[in-house]
Amino acid sequence: MMVLTVFGTVAVTAQAVNVQKPLSPLYVVTPPLPNVWGERVWNYQDAEKYASPGATSSADISGRTLTATASAGESTGARVEGESFCAVGVNWYLNPCVNWDAVKSKPVLVTVLLGYKVAGSGSGKAVGDVLLEASHATYTLVHKDTTAASYSVNQPFKVVQFRTTLSQIGVSPGYGYLHVFAGAFANAGIVTSPQSSTQVTVYSVGLQWA
């Protein structure tokens, strides 16, 4: 299952706190120290999909909204599945003049403001995921799956915060990323066709010294 292989690293459930929705930029990297971050801080966007014959899949990024849907037809003995995922986030670079060893263990606070709708049904496998990938760890924000009946989750606004270090969210010295994913997967069952959809609105992704 591509969703799991793409997202699968160390899974940690992030803690949520409830606050009033602020008017925030989509991405922000704001440590209090001047000239720490280099100019190569940019937004990241990606959408991918896969569907075997008899299945459908779609992935879309429209502004701040990620939408992934997947469905699979009746199983005829062959493997019928659809899957899709989309991601937005920020890739960051430290200023080359900053000593990586001096800051890599400093605590940083990651804050993600988002809302989501996750739904699925069918006697086959229907999975919906909302995940935050930060280099060496994947934080599971929502994971729902069913092999019968259905599921539905609607959370208009949520704040997720966790403390970490630059080395934990870095790919290499001076570089790292924070990406929010929406994923959907459906694998056909014997009786009914499974369907799964995941929609996420990302209000902001923030990184600052804790």
Mean pLDDT: 79
Q: What is the tally of beta strands? A: 14
Radius of gyration, in Å, reads: 18 Å
H/E series, N to C? HEEEEEEEHEEEEEEE
Largest sheet: 7 strands, mixed
Percent range of helical residues: under 10%
Domain unit count: 1
Beta-strand percentage?
Answer: over 45%
Overall body shape: elongated
Content-based structural category: mainly beta
Q: pLDDT under 50 segments (min length 5)?
A: 1-24
Number of helices: 2
Terminal CA distance reads 36 Å
How does the SSE layout of this entry go?
Elements (H helix, E strand, L loop, with lengths): L1 H6 L2 E4 L1 E3 L9 E3 L12 E10 L3 E8 L2 E8 L8 E13 L6 H4 L3 E15 L3 E10 L2 E10 L3 E16 L4 E3 L2 E13 L7 E15 L1
Parallel strand pairs: 1-10, 3-14
Antiparallel strand pairs: 2-11, 4-7, 5-6, 6-14, 7-13, 8-11, 8-14, 9-10, 9-13, 12-13
